[in-house]
Amino acid sequence: MPEIRVTPLGAGQDVGRSCILVSIAGKNVMLDCGMHMGFSDDRRFPDFSYITRSGRLTDFLDCVIISHFHLDHCGALPYFSEMVGYDGPIYMTQPTQAICPILLEDYRKIAVDKKVVEITKHIHDNRALRYVELLPLSGTVQEPQSTSNAFTPPLTHWLLSPCILIPSACETPGTSPLMLVDDELEIKAYYAGHVLGAAMFQIKVGSESVVYTGDYNMTPDRHLGAAWIDKCRPNLLITESTYATTIRDSKRCRERDFLKKVHETVERGGKVLIPVFALGRAQELCILLETFWERMDLKAPIYFSTGLTEKANHYYKLFIPWTNQKIRKTFVQRNMFEFKHVKAFDRAFADSPGPMVVFATPGMLHAGQSLQIFRKWAGNEKNMVIMPGYCVQGTVGHKILSGQRKLEMEGRQVLEVKMQVEYMSFSAHADAKGIMQLVGQAEPENVLLVHGEAKKMEFLKQKIEQEFRVSCYMPANGETVTLPTSPSIPVGISLGLLKRELAQGLLPDSKKPRLLHGTLIMKDSNFRLVSSEQALKELGLAEHQLRFTCRVHLHDTRKEQETAVRVYSHLKSVLKDHCVQHLPDGSVTVESILIQAAAHSEDPGTKVLLVSWTYQDEELGSYLTSLLKKGLPQAS
Amino acid sequence: MEPAEDWLVESLRLYQDFHAFDLSGATRVLEWIGDKGILVAGYESLKKNEILHLILPLRLSVKENQGLFPERDFKVRHGGFSDRSVFDLKYVPDTRLLVTSGLPGCYLQVWQVAEDSDVIKAVSTIDVHEKEGRLWPRMAIFSSAAPGVLHGARLSSLKVVDLESQKTTYSSGISDDELLSSLQVLDADTFAFCCTSGRLGLVDTRQKWTPSENFRPGSGSAGGRWCAEAGGRGPGPSIASLGSDGQLCLLDPRDLCQPVSLVQCPVSMPSPDPELLRVTWAPGLDNCLAISGFDGTVQVYDVTSWGGMGRQVEPLFTHKGHIFLDGNGMDTAPLVTTHTWHPCKPRTLLSAASDASLHVWDWVDLHAAR
């Protein structure tokens, strides 16, 4: 029975650590290879023992596909390739490949705690952003104590292993060209929005296909478009259900909140610090502020730290095909960061009096410029710091978001934090409505949700099943869902064979079955049904015929010819559906079966009927023989 | 600049907080479960409607350190499906039960909110014996150890049914068949009713039918359709009655025959769907009420020192979000279907509109700022 099997990997039922194994038509694909940011021991990795038990990983997997650069989707890749030993092909988009290693390198330096890290309520509830900074660290954070940490091997080896880059999926209609992994497995990327370079993937083998969404966003924002998929009708659509039970506040209201906070602070003469990650949200927020400043004719300066500008510009030039139409148009006209109101920052400005807004890296306040500025401004309650994302434990960002107001800095100095602390989430995920939209666009036969607790998703499951008349599955990590599929296999029948069958006597009524003999030739995913002669010819073999012969003894004192006539009349009246003929030489034929009457050599009262048939007519031949053995009706 | 952007900038000054959501289907119901959850339900006639139990975003639920909670989204905690449209929904306090009313109006549906899963399941029905298909019974809950459902589409069919035994524990027993527009339980023995004509009364269930009633507001009133709510805080009248032409009548429960004031609210036209009229008293502010059902706005009024008849009044605040944030660009402007006050935050309201939008907003009292 052909089937598709899906197993989400991972040690628990919790979120983070996306990693899904799909078996489709004999091919094995791993979708994402994520890490759980809440743990610092092996629980942060998916449970690969499910695969490695069955032999060498590289042999088992046909490929690995990474949807985007967030660490909960790609963070376990180095471990997977270095420690577990996978060295087969890895598919990802260009921005993903460029940004992923940087995040990993930085994470390695932050992840300090060797003891078990409890999942904080923030991780649970927020499913927060999981990316870290672009700039290397300096100073305040300790290096991990043990060298058995999975990240210590250099990342370069992994980068050199076959990372196949997927061309931009951003041009309308938003799909990449088809990529062939081998002569049977094809993959295609669709634009997913969410973050730079994020994609949804269609994996196809023959007529069976699976679509994996990764993380996606159905509403466009200021620098990325919205996810889109065509009516590809896959057998299965796999999507995350993390946000499936939320109804999202509109983007406008989130922006409004941000503007309000910034405006209020600036109005009272305070300074606003926004620690950022270089790509994505920073641009978004800058564009927003620029628009607002223009509208309100505000004079307070907005600064963007230079390191940020250069890197961001560099990346944007590379990845401009991955941003939305509007941005691309503006980029063509001017430099991404030539804003009217946003200027390059100089560290001396931090000491200037009066209100200002500064975007600085790194985003978790764990080092560098943003931390320096924070230390200068923290003591004044007129000031504000707006944290735009999740902060890893141990960082200053994490501490202040936990409510800590007295921080111990190096040299045992205590910093009192009087400035206002705000936490705003700008991450873009599809919610309940978005998921329904995407399922409606793709029209899958089945839907599979990962990363949700089954008990809490019963309503969503019913909703999907009812609305789209599909089956909805919700496997736990480690549980395998098996989907039977009925792939259609087209077979061509040769005209010659058809014609011969037609010529061979009566046709059954339409829609009634008819037994037909032929030979199935399978060559290069091509199936043909031809006559045996044709097949033999193609194979260069001689034909052998099998013929069965049976003798039936009948008591009949008349001459052979008369016996033959009696046999003919009898069979004609009984076998009305078949072609019964009496040949000039006295023999009787039923279809291709030959019956000859002969006298018994020793007993003139007995006639011997010689019944012979070919292998193809075995069934009829056997039937005829038993019929004749019952004897002939008495002549009237 | 688009009007939506303009309004958003304006909103910085007008609202302390503002959240806008898109439900999968419009609701006419906003019913609180505790102070952290609300129930909404669809009212479309030809498809399955959803009943949702939504948990308020953390940011709106916590009292301190709001800034540390980035959560701005509703969580769907429970959901269920209803084959018929839901026009009213009541939560039975201290239980896991809900009662809904809709069309056809011959029965009320009782639901159970599951404890170990996220499903809202239909469990039983309460027969209403309503002969006319177009009418749906209004409801109110007598919450006690043995909760009862007060229901009726007309004065003559008013009954209280014990939820568990399904026995009728009270019946109006009168033949007057005036249509009801609202019912409200005031305490263990009293309830208030309002008829579509504007006739309202307070009923003591321990006695045979002898409500204290008003006469129709103003002998020369044009009629129209009315609804009412009791519950004002602070000194002054505590019953408000709203008419479909924008007339607002304030009454003191001790003397319903003498309205304290009758004013005309500035509405551009009479309500296009008087069944959607809502008037609610603010639980956290003195002498403050809100009205909706005329257009895409919700108007908040300070009724202190309103006296006399016929005067024009101006709202303290008008919420226009549903008009400006209409992202669908529909031809018809959205109509606010219902609104409700937050039980604890004094100036926070929730409002829903016909375009399936749901807003949570905390308005700034600009007068107080001066």
Automatic annotation (TrEMBL), chain A:
CDD domains: INTS11-like_MBL-fold (cd16291). Coiled coil: none annotated. GO terms for molecular function: hydrolase activity; metal ion binding; RNA endonuclease activity. Keywords: Cytoplasm, Hydrolase, Metal-binding, Nucleus, Zinc. It is found in: Cytoplasm; Nucleus. Its cofactor is Zn(2+). GO terms for cellular component: cytoplasm; nucleus. Signal peptide: none annotated. GO terms for biological process: snRNA processing. Belongs to the metallo-beta-lactamase superfamily. RNA-metabolizing metallo-beta-lactamase-like family. INTS11 subfamily. Component of the Integrator complex, composed of core subunits INTS1, INTS2, INTS3, INTS4, INTS5, INTS6, INTS7, INTS8, INTS9/RC74, INTS10, INTS11/CPSF3L, INTS12, INTS13, INTS14 and INTS15. The core complex associates with protein phosphatase 2A subunits PPP2CA and PPP2R1A, to form the Integrator-PP2A (INTAC) complex. INTS11 is part of the RNA endonuclease subcomplex, composed of INTS4, INTS9, INTS11 and inositol hexakisphosphate (InsP6). Interacts with WDR73; interaction is required for the assembly of the RNA endonuclease subcomplex in the cytoplasm. This is Integrator complex subunit 11. It comes from Tursiops truncatus (Atlantic bottle-nosed dolphin).
TrEMBL record, chain B:
GO terms for cellular component: cytosol; spindle pole. InterPro entries: WD40/YVTN_repeat-like_dom_sf, WD40_repeat_dom_sf, WD40_rpt, Wdr73. One of its GO terms (biological process) is cytoplasmic microtubule organization. It comes from the Eukaryota. This is WD repeat-containing protein 73 isoform X3. It comes from Tursiops truncatus. The gene is WDR73.
